[in-house]
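Lecture notes, unit on protein representations.

Consider one protein chain, 252 amino acids long.
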Amino acid sequence: FSKLKLSDMQASTFSDFAGRRRKAGTGPTTVLHNLATIRSVLNAAKPMFGLDVNGNAVSEAIAALSRVGAVAKSKSRERRPTADELQRIDAEYTRIAAYPSTLIPTGTIVKLAIALPRRLGELLGMRWVDYDKRFKIIVLRDTKHPTEPRDEVVPIPPEAIAIIESLPVIDERILPYKSESVSASFERVTARLGIDDLHFHDLRHEGISRLFERGLSIQEVALISGHQSWAMLRRYTHPSAMALSEKLNAAE
């Protein structure tokens, strides 16, 4: 784009760009994000810099590309690990924990990601000084927010408290590890076990679903998970039919 004049950019310019991205192996959702970013920049050009240009050409390209499936919004995942998968993952981490070369307690982090369903970066950013054992809460600093970072006071479920209390104090952070290393470890283990299409973030999905299945309200779950709205939280919530049936028929 640095070789083009703004006045020369047309819908075909962005369609060609999307075509090259897709041919290189980029997914339709990522390409849509790319185009949306470009559109935002162009829409800011006139009010911020006085340039007579806007993102209409990008919008035209997105509309045409969407019709043929070249770009698409992300699909909400419904993947939850099965009890067998979690048992196998735990057994594998227990096995490799005995090796001296194992420095990261990823098996423990996996359990915590379900017990306290927050983003991996937030779990690894937790500090001992922000952990209140008496009131069973923790303050998470600079968490994700639509407009600006924020600090959250988060109630800690009992299972998560037990995990945190079992950890040694070796740093100001409760889990002083890099998220990339934890994610890579999880990918290696699931691949070795032949577990398909399971991402570390799916553990958060599992944890949130479990909170709903325990009978917590939307507001209560959101206070733990950090979601800002029901619309955002709903995509992670898929209570099992069996659990709901038991709840509906509990009186009888």
